[in-house]
Design goal:
- This protein is of the alpha+beta class.
- It has two domains: about 5-155, Jelly Rolls; about 170-270, Arc Repressor Mutant, subunit A, CATH 1.10.10.60.
- About 45% of the residues lie in helices and about 20% in strands.
- The protein contains eleven helices and nine strands.
- A hairpin with a 6-residue loop joins strand 4 (about 45-50) and strand 5.
- Helix 5 crosses helix 6 (about 190-195).
- The relative contact order is 0.13.
Length: about 270
């Protein structure tokens, strides 16, 4: 089983063109929760500025992967500005605080370090400039492929060393996470999940917390809430959602939702308009 592909399928990853053009002034990025950005710096110089960190000089063709937890700005270093193409990714409805993916800071990929994906980037730029029929969908597919390659590269080189993505690929933890994803309606206990992972409860709980950053039950709750939010956006009734994601009643779902999101389901849904 290709665990990473399964995960991306389940979160309904969607890449969209966000901005394209020449940046002459500082570009401050304001990202809603549950999103990430890819910036393709085609030419020109930029400084990556992050609060509390040294600025990073981007002096050649570069791709940036910026998670929603990172606050940053891009500042041109020459009067000619810099040519960039940006995509925003929505990981379904907001992933929520129980889904630490292990990307907490902007990841920088000079073209020379990702030479296998450069032809895809060139195809994307040609697709953007061509503006032919279907180009919007074509751009989305190409951006999504680039994101997958960047995540793969980050995992292989240790740029992502913990979080949900690493746990999904773990031979033992991954089994438990996959079962949570496949069967969120099951009445899971810590013992059940540990058995799936072929580990003792104490070892499983400690290892899960160490790698993922939250407890197994917190991850289970977070995944259920993510699914509930997606279904709410589709207009499914709360009673039906409750049964689909493992709660005995609409009231039980509402209580869990308030604890996770800070407000009732109906109020949350109103704020999405």
């Amino acid at each position: 089983m290709d665990a990473l592909s399964e995960f991306f399928d389940r979160i309904h990853m969607n890449g969209r063109l966000f901005y394209a053009g020449t940046v002459f002034d500082t570009l401050d990025i304001n990202k809603p929760d549950g999103t990430a950005f890819i910036h393709i710096v085609e030419n020109g110089g930029l400084d990556l500025i992050r609060p509390g960190h040294p600025r990073i000089v981007l002096d050649g063709p570069t791709v940036l992967l910026c998670p929603s937890t990172c606050r940053y700005a891009l500042q041109p270093t020459t009067e000619q500005g810099a040519e960039i193409l940006c995509a925003t990714f929505e990981f379904g409805v907001s992933m929520g605080r129980s889904f630490p993916l292990g990307v907490t800071d902007t990841l920088v990929f000079p073209f020379r370090d990702i030479d296998s994906v450069v032809p895809v980037i060139q195809a994307l730029l040609a697709e953007f400039r061509g503006q032919r029929a279907g180009h919007r969908k074509g751009l989305s597919v190409l951006f999504e492929y680039i994101l997958i390659v960047l995540v793969r590269r980050a995992i292989e080189t240790g740029m992502i060393a913990r979080g949900g993505l690493i746990a999904i690929l773990d031979p033992q933890l991954g089994k438990a996470i996959n079962e949570i994803h496949l069967n969120p309606d099951r009445d899971w206990s810590l013992k059940d999940l540990a058995q799936v992972a072929c580990m003792s409860r104490s070892k499983f709980s400690a290892q899960f917390l160490k790698v993922v950053g939250v407890s197994p039950i917190a991850y289970l709750t977070g995944w259920r809430m993510k699914l509930a939010r997606d279904l709410m956006k589709q207009g499914v009734k709360l009673k039906v959602i409750a049964a689909s994601v493992g709660y005995s009643s609409q009231a039980a779902l509402t209580r869990a939702f308030v604890l996770e999101m800070g407000l009732p389901p109906g109020e949350w849904l109103k704020r999405q308009d």
